[in-house]
Amino acid sequence: MRIDLKLRLASQFRAARSLACHERGFSMWSVVHNVERRDFEYRRRSRRSAERFPVLESSASFARTFAAAAGGLFVIAAATVTALAAQAQPELQEEKVSVERIPVGTKKLYLADMAASHFVDGRLYILNTADLKFMGVVSTGFAGTFSVRHRRGEIYVATTYYSKLTRGERVDLLEVHDASTLELKEEIEIPKTRAQAVNYRSNMQGSADDRFVFIQNATPATSITVVDMNAKVATSEISNDGCYGTYPAAGNPFRFSTICGDGSFGTYTLAQDGKSAERKASANVFDPDKDALFSHAERDGDSWLFVSYGGTVYKVNLEGETAELLETFPINEGVEGGWRPGGYQPIAYNSRSGVLFALMHSDGSEGSHKNPAEEIWAFDVRKKTLLSRSPTKTATSLTVSTAEKPTLFAVNSTDTTVIRYTADPAAQFALTETNVEKVGETVVQVEAD
Q1: What is the C-alpha to C-alpha distance for residues 265 and 350, in angstroms, rounded to an integer?
Q2: φ, ψ at 22 (rounded to 5°)
Q3: CB 131 within 8 A of CB 108
Q4: CA-to-CA distance for 45 and 260, rounded, in angstroms?
Q5: Which of 25, 66, 130, 239 gets the highest tally of CB atoms within 10 A of its CB?
Q6: What is the DSSP letter of 345?
Q7: Where does the pLDDT of residue 204 fall: very low under 50, low under 70, confident under 90, or very high at 90 and above?
Q8: Distance of alpha carbon 448 from alpha carbon 148, whole angstroms
Q9: Is the backbone peptide bond immediately before 220 cis, with ω within 30 degrees of 0?
């Protein structure tokens, strides 16, 4: 295209020059010579009769002649470029904007990104569990937390906004998104006391029948906001001083518990309208000084599985008016190397197989409970047996699918990636890495359908 344009312009230039010289009776050379000399006022006559140079009568005559020649040249060149551009540029097709739905039955992976470098702009990334392909994103605002309510086909986001981005008037909302289109359906205003903290599952959970949502607050005084999703209103704010997190009962939609700093659990039973609650404290379940518990826990039927910083599992029943410790058992007993659980979401439980997967790091000690994992252990909760140990890379959060042949997803906080593993029941639930995908900046919480 470039060569063709050059040749055509050169040819048209010569044609324009010959035409101008013929009509005006002088050589283009004389025009160029005197233009270069910037001598526009000369009146001398040419003595070069062999070339039959004409007499240039005046600068006005010269200017008119040059303008005619140059103008003709530029018009031809512009027309040529325009014609070539029209030939090269395909016609633009009209673009139609639409919203696509995530197909029904698609298993989704949810990754909450705190966006620590721009905290007011958190995101919830949604990937396909089969291949980690990106499917969509939901804004979670300032340190927002989320919960997926499968019965309702909705995603809940509790978040905060400020009128001047990082300051000014504050408003706290519980936002409801369609789980298929990710569109915002409605907003429910909640008290301005919501905990602006690292994402943990226990920061916001739903009741057994999905009528109520329980949201952890901290100002730093702790309390729990109760939202009635049928009435679309926050019904109460219940104090849980000295305690943190929400753990709903499986059989009673009006009951939830919270874990306390003195080693006990507080259990709340709501009134029918959700506007008040009765609280009862349990006896001490664990020793917070010798073997503190991670706030993350996994449901096992009517019970919850907590793991301690030292690697002991506490199975706690939270169905009654007070919490009851059912049993404890270590997952690292007899294993050399000082292995301990660590990270933000250190365990994941597959209830079908009864296998607990744990993020483990070596040379553990007091204060190492946030260390990223070097291995993922598979532990049989029913037989109290360590089944397998699989390598991983700096993983800090873990979740597992509900399928009989589990699929696990680990967040590598160092590389900001999510890793997909398949577990083989025939090989003691050893893991095989299948996919790795870059996602977000500061992902902490991960959940899978």
Answers
A1: 25
A2: -65, -45
A3: no
A4: 109
A5: 66
A6: B
A7: very high
A8: 10
A9: yes
- Residue 184 CB contacts under 8 Å (≥ 6 apart), including other chains: 175, 176, 177
Name every residue whose Cβ is closer than 8 Å to that of residue 373 and which is 6 or more positions away in sequence. 342, 343, 346, 359, 360, 361, 392, 394, 395, 396, 398, 410
Q: Are 414 and 373 in contact (CB under 8 A)?
A: no
Starting at the edge strand found earlier in the chain, the sheet holding 277-281 runs 243-248, 255-260, 265-270, 277-281
Q: How far apart are CA 358 and CA 341, in angstroms?
A: 7
End-to-end alpha-carbon separation of the chain, Å?
A: 55
Matching residue, tokens 């753990």: 247
Three-class DSSP category at 443:
strand
**Which residues partner with 232 through β-bridges?**
none
Q: pLDDT at residue 35 above 60? A: no
Dump pLDDT digits (tens) for 83-116. Answer: 555 566 678 888 888 778 898 889 999 999 999 9
Whole-Å CA distances, 277 to 81, 236, 254, 343? 79, 9, 9, 33
Total number of residues shown for the chain:
449
Report whether pLDDT(334) > 70.
Answer: yes
Q: What is the dihedral sign for C-alpha 159, 162, 163, 168?
A: positive
Cα torsion angle, 339, 343, 344, 345, sign = negative
By the 8 A CB rule, do 337 and 363 touch? Answer: yes
User: How far, in whole angstroms, is CA 36 from its chain's centroid?
Assistant: 64
**Residue 53 exposure: Cα atoms within 13 Å on the Cβ side:** 13
Q: What pLDDT does 61 receive?
A: 52
Pairing of strands 255-260, 108-113: unpaired
Strand order in the sheet with 212-218: 204-206, 212-218, 222-228, 233-239
Compute the radius of gyration of the chain from its Cα atoms.
37
- Measured from the Cβ of residue 219, the count of other Cβ atoms closer than 10 Å reads 12
- Burial environment of residue 27 by CB neighbours within 10 A (0 to 12, 13 to 18, 19 or more): middle
Give the CA distances from residue 266 to residues 105, 258, 282, in Å, rounded to whole numbers and listed in that order.
38, 5, 6
Residue located via tokens 């006005």: 60
What token pair was written down for 429?
């639930």
Question: In sequence order, what are the beta bridge partners of 236?
Answer: 226
